[in-house]
Write a structure and sequence with these properties.
The chain is an all-beta fold. It has strands at residues 4-7, 10-12, 18-24, 33-39, 46-51, 58-60, 68-73, 78-83, 92-99, 117-118, 122-126. A hairpin with a 4-residue loop joins strand 7 and strand 8.
């Protein structure tokens, strides 16, 4: 069903913070680019950001830049999405996804069609 597992979602007040985790169930995550995506009710899925295999290239979409931080801890085989200054419009199901980069690639792309493996999502609700 899913090769990736997200955790950490829940209900948080506006202005609050939340940290999501993404872990691989059967493989080491350090061989893959990891992307974060979200889908709000009635909306199309949109990218949030991505992190390359090495963890030294990270991209974010403008709507979350400065508020969200992606990082990875290879010792724990986990990729994180820390969300600060959360807004009600951040409410969505959040997904992590992975693809194996080519040997020539040292960056990452946020485009969802590039990703081959997806988690089942974790729900984030920002509300008073």
């Amino acid at each position: 069903q899913s090769d990736l597992v997200e955790s950490g979602g829940g209900l948080v007040q506006p202005g609050g913070s939340l940290r999501l985790s993404c872990a691989a169930s059967e493989f080491t995550l350090d061989g893959y680019v990891i992307g974060w995506f979200r889908q709000a009710p009635g909306k199309e899925r949109e990218g949030v950001g991505c992190i390359n295999r090495q963890g030294d290239w990270i991209e974010y979409v403008d709507s979350v830049k400065g508020r969200f931080t992606i990082s990875r801890d290879n010792a724990k085989n986990t990729v994180y999405l820390r969300m600060d200054s959360l807004k009600p419009e951040d409410t969505a199901d959040y997904y992590c996804a992975a693809y194996r980069p080519s040997s020539l690639s040292s960056r990452c792309v946020i485009s969802d069609h590039r990703y081959d493996w997806w988690g089942q999502g974790t729900q984030v609700t920002v509300s008073s």
